[in-house]
């Protein structure tokens, strides 16, 4: 028995409509390069590859793309992270803070540096998307249980139709990845596949 379903959670599909914008959350080398403590998780590497495919199509169709990393000036600048690897390596001058070249196009993408979990928190992403006429936001990046979840909730809260392609987001473990997608999918966003988003962009943008 799925009591959430019985109580109507997830019954209404959001759907993609109008102009889309894409956010790419924290595909920095700290998460995508296995030499770093948080880097190289298989789900994240799968997500990088699929996001790269999505972004290639998006750029061809003039879709707004915002990338972010998380980096701090020094220890004092950090919020109260409980993750040692974040405290030690997420610095503006650390090589792991660079965006992964597999997904980042410096000639096209807008870049912001975020200090909290959500790409929308105290950044200009919302005003940029409003200027661009974005109605539907596609959330990609990592980690599903942290910054993806936070960004999804903020996207919903700002009034955007919110879509999370399951194969364009990743996490350290499969359990939290699927649990959080199921949870936000019951409430705030549609959980899709990368290919479905690509098809929408090709047909509508």
TrEMBL record:
Pfam families: Isochorismatase (PF00857). The keyword Hydrolase applies. Keywords: Hydrolase. The keyword Lipoprotein does not apply. Residues 22-184 form the Isochorismatase-like domain. One of its GO terms (molecular function) is hydrolase activity. This is Isochorismatase family protein. The lineage of its organism: Bacteria, Pseudomonadati, Pseudomonadota, Gammaproteobacteria, Oceanospirillales.
């Amino acid at each position: 028995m799925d009591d959430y379903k019985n109580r109507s959670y997830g019954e209404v599909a959001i759907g993609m409509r109008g102009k889309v914008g894409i956010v790419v959350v924290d595909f920095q080398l700290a998460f995508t390069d296995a030499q770093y403590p948080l880097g190289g998780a298989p789900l994240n590497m799968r997500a990088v590859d699929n996001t790269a495919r999505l972004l290639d199509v998006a750029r061809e169709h003039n879709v707004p793309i915002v990338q972010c990393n998380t980096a701090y000036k020094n220890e004092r600048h950090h919020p109260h992270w409980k993750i040692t690897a974040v405290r030690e390596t997420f610095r503006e001058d650390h090589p792991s803070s660079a965006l992964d070249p597999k997904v980042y196009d410096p000639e096209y993408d807008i870049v912001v540096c975020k200090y909290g979990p959500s790409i929308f928190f105290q950044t200009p992403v919302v005003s940029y998307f409003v200027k661009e006429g974005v109605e539907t936001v596609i959330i990609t990046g990592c980690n599903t249980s942290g910054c993806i979840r936070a960004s999804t909730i903020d996207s919903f809260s700002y009034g955007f139709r919110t879509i999370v392609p399951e194969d364009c987001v990743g996490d350290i473990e499969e359990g939290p990845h699927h649990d959080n997608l199921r949870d936000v999918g019951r409430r705030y966003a549609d959980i899709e596949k990368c290919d479905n988003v690509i098809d929408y962009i090709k047909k509508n943008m």
